[in-house]
What we know:
heterodimer; A: 317 residues; mainly alpha; 13 helices; 78% helix; 0% strand; globular; B: 296 residues; 12 helices; elongated; disordered N terminus
Amino acid sequence: MTRYLLRRIGLALITLWLLSLIVFFAGQVLPGDPGRAVLGPFASKSVVAAYDHQIGVDRPLVIQYLGWIGGLLHGNMGKSYQYRSAVEPFIVAALGNSAKLALLALIIIIPLGIAGGVLAAMYSGRAIDRLISLGGLAVSTVPEFVSGIVLIVVFGVALKLLPITAATSPGDSPADQLKHLILPVIPLVLVLFGYIARMARAGTVEALESDYARTATLKGLPRSVVIRRHVLRNSLLPTITVIATQTGYLIGGLVVVELLFNYQGIGRLILNAANGKDFPMLEAGVLVIGVVYMVATLIADVLYTVLNPRLRSGVAG
Amino acid sequence: MSELTATPSAAPGAVAIAHAFAAPPAQWRLLLRKPTFLIGAGILLLWLLCAVFGHFIAPFDPLAQQLLAKNSAPSGAHLFGTDNLGRDVLSRVIVGARDILLIAPVATLLGAALGTMLGLAMGYFGGVIDTVLGRVVEAVLALPVVIVAFLFIVAVGPSSITLILVIGFIFTPLIARTVRTAVLVERQQDYLASARLLGERPAFIMFAEILPNVLPVIVVEFTVRLGYAIFAVATLSFLGFGVQQPTPDWGGDIATNYGLLGAGYWWETLFPALAIASLVMALNLVTDSIEQVISS
């Protein structure tokens, strides 16, 4: 188990290092220079060059990369070109906001997706199964901003029931903040529902057809007990993995939803940084997203191994 | 069958596709009797017509600005209203079908072509090639897709070509993985052993012997990926990384106008949004029907 864990963490670190390389060099070939972007079109050439020298972007790329990665290892993520101050406070605040939105989405989607999948499996082939399976697939392929627009038009503009932006003022009560997050969270839930329900359905169908489920039924256990005690435990294993791999989709969805609903999360932050050629902010933001994604995948892998006795004995040696 | 054997000079790929589609006409008739397929195909056909003949169908020039009639609500003159520059929204929705219906299939085709070649090589040769390519595929898949696309576009700059390349490259490892699995199954078959004993070259065995047999897998993979491609193209356009203004584009037009939702100008974003939704829904109906007919 320890060896397996160490191997997984090692692989994750290598991927992270690759990501840091990609992030850094992708940021460098971004057209336009930061001095010009910050100082505007009317600044003179010499002033721009002086600014570039001051923030160090005129040094060789390898030196810049080493300086950046060295700073990262000391917990220093660099200084934003746009805000002319350390990027950490921005990243931390944005990450907190995104986490709020993402957690709310997960709290809704995990029980809903699993319940939908189990229900579809129990009535496999019937109308309710078709409705959940095809309906889930259909809504999961509609981009978040499309369902978001429809929701805004219906509940925000026509019915005027809910606020159309997620941004709240600092003094707002938690209930008020929650109200602002209702519309943004629905598109995230819709996209993930189809995948999670489909995995839960497949796992449940397999478990329902298994010998142990049949034995449990034949020895006279009520259907609800068979489902709860024998089927669910086995059917939910693959679903756990899927939920973790969906973190990637969730992050992509966050970028879109945060833009549409004007929410100050990590997605908005890197989008603004990219448009403003604010490399340190962009690099730090993307790297943080990479870390979150990798940690989620790692937790899922470990959880899967811990929960699955067959795998656990396989890697023990 | 006779006309297939009569043209031995045809490319192996074309023959294979003909095989896959010409084989069971009964299944095609079954498909045509499914209402879900007919509805989906009808909507797809409508958007295809808009993509090809958009400029002839559109009631107005999608670029023509009427600044005196900007942000006007849907009416008899402008069925979908006008946008912030007084451009006819209906015309922009009709002409806007073109880019997404060009970029998404071409990107998927690119990913399918590269992924098929990669998957064939990985599955057929195995060994070192499989291990090395497998590691690369895993590394690509280890990053959130949207971040990969985002970085690539930030580095290269937004354009239709960039979108095609990004989405094609992201699909390549995904499709390669599926093809590889299918090739591993084929490798156990007797016909491959005989082909090798006959001394045929690996390229011939891969493309003329294995490819036709794994083609159904690739076709299904293509249709599924096409849905994701539309999702990705629309999303990246909305983020400002796709077709640039003033060219009509569903995602791009929504990006330009969603800020006006608060002012109540809902028609400028709702109609392009519904266009995207109808396109992906239609594609789902068609894909689902085909999968059902194939598996039945």
